[in-house]
Design goal:
377 residues; alpha/beta; Aspartate Aminotransferase, domain 2; Aspartate Aminotransferase, domain 1; 2 domains; 8-stranded mixed sheet; 3-stranded antiparallel sheet; 13 strands; 36% helix; 14% strand
């Protein structure tokens, strides 16, 4: 009996063709090449209507955003504790103190109603994380930020193709960061990211910092006659080989999205009969999600552990998710939890993710469903 993997990077079949075409052409292999520009144009035209900059990872995108808003020692950044460490590291690297806020128990996103109590005169930014590709309450968050003159940096690592009130995630704050890691809906050969720059005041400097602090992009556009070092910066460009891999998937982005939604909806409709024994994901009416993951909330840690073991015994991989950052050694050193931890730690111990990826077969989906149903009998 073969194992049902928890995740596999999506493969659509044309990735190798584009990589070979690139290698055999006279196009450059480094950043901002033929395929990199195609990917950026796709996001700008199709989703964002703002500036899109390919990066080596979502981590790099968040670091670039932290540089752009000039995070300094002593600044404070508000974020959920239930997130990946990159969300925090990008700002800690610049000297910021983290203010962790509890999650909304329905969506696992930062509870927007608790943000205002975390704001001080030192607050520089709010970093909403769109968990499972389901949007945070962005209208409320943006209004709070506007009133307090602070920045909003969306961590939309899981949010490609998701929307809030008809607008694409990543395009709702001052900036937004996407991930193309192999665990995401679309990948650029295992790693990769993109920074969405939605505030025009940051667009020119974003190019400069991304190009090691030089005005090289302006030079190639003919704006300056030579390029030189003009600002701080680093190397935040992915190779064009990565972008060629991603381009193959963006060409069939709707197909990938529809397949994932089909799997998600199959899980969701079937598990309706288990409500009361588990809690299923909740999608607010103003949100259009991308089926990034399907999770259930078990009754408690003991039940989740038993279910993981039962699935494993039946050759099915499953996974829990984040250990809350505020409970970690570095989290205690670089930040603090504001208010009561009512849901973050509790849901961290109860949440279980089931297999969901583009190439997952219907046969394997049904196998997962049968095992979960059998466990709860």
């Amino acid at each position: 009996m073969s194992m049902v993997d928890f995740n596999r990077a999506p493969v659509v079949g044309s990735e190798i063709k584009y990589i070979e075409k690139l290698i055999n052409s006279k196009n450059k292999l480094c950043g901002d090449g033929y395929y990199g520009n195609l990917c950026q144009e796709w996001f700008e035209k199709r989703l964002l209507k703002s500036k899109a900059l390919m990066t080596p990872s979502c981590t790099s995108s968040l670091e670039l955003a932290a540089l752009l808003i000039d995070i300094k020692e002593g600044d404070e950044v508000i974020l959920p504790s239930f997130t990946f460490v990159s969300t925090a590291n990008a700002f800690v690297l610049r000297g910021a103190k983290l203010k962790f806020v509890d999650i909304d128990p329905k969506t696992q996103n930062i509870d927007s109603k608790l943000i205002e109590a975390s704001i001080t005169l030192k607050t520089k930014a709010i970093v909403p994380v769109h968990y499972a590709g389901v949007s945070c309450e962005m209208d409320e968050i943006n209004e709070i930020a506007k009133e307090n003159k602070i920045f909003v940096i969306e961590d939309a690592a899981q949010g490609v193709m998701s929307k809030y009130k008809g607008q694409s995630l990543g395009g709702l704050g001052h900036m937004g960061a996407f991930s193309f890691h192999e665990t995401k809906n679309y990948t650029s050969a295992g790693e990769g990211g993109l920074l969405c720059v939605n505030d025009s005041t940051f667009m020119e400097r974003a190019e400069i910092i991304r190009e090691k602090g030089t005005n090289r992009s302006q030079f190639f556009r003919g704006v300056v006659d030579k390029y030189s070092w003009v600002d701080i910066g680093s190397s935040y460009l992915p190779s064009d080989v990565q972008c060629a891999y991603l381009w193959a998937q963006l060409e069939v982005a709707d197909q990938i999205n529809e397949r994932r939604l089909h799997i998600w909806n199959t899980y969701h409709s079937t598990f309706e009969s288990l409500e009361g024994k588990i809690t299923r994901p909740f999608i607010p009416k103003e949100c259009e999600h991308n089926a990034h993951m399907y999770y259930i909330l078990c009754k408690d840690l003991e039940q989740r552990t038993s279910l993981i073991e039962f699935l494993k015994a039946n050759q099915i991989q499953s996974a829990f998710h984040y250990v809350p950052l505020h409970s970690s050694k570095a989290g205690r050193k670089f930040g603090e939890f504001v208010g009561q931890d009512q849901f973050t730690s509790d849901h961290s111990e109860r949440l279980l993710r089931l297999p969901l990826f583009y190439n997952l077969s219907d046969l394997d989906v049904n196998k997962v469903i049968d095992c979960v149903m059998q466990f709860y009998k």
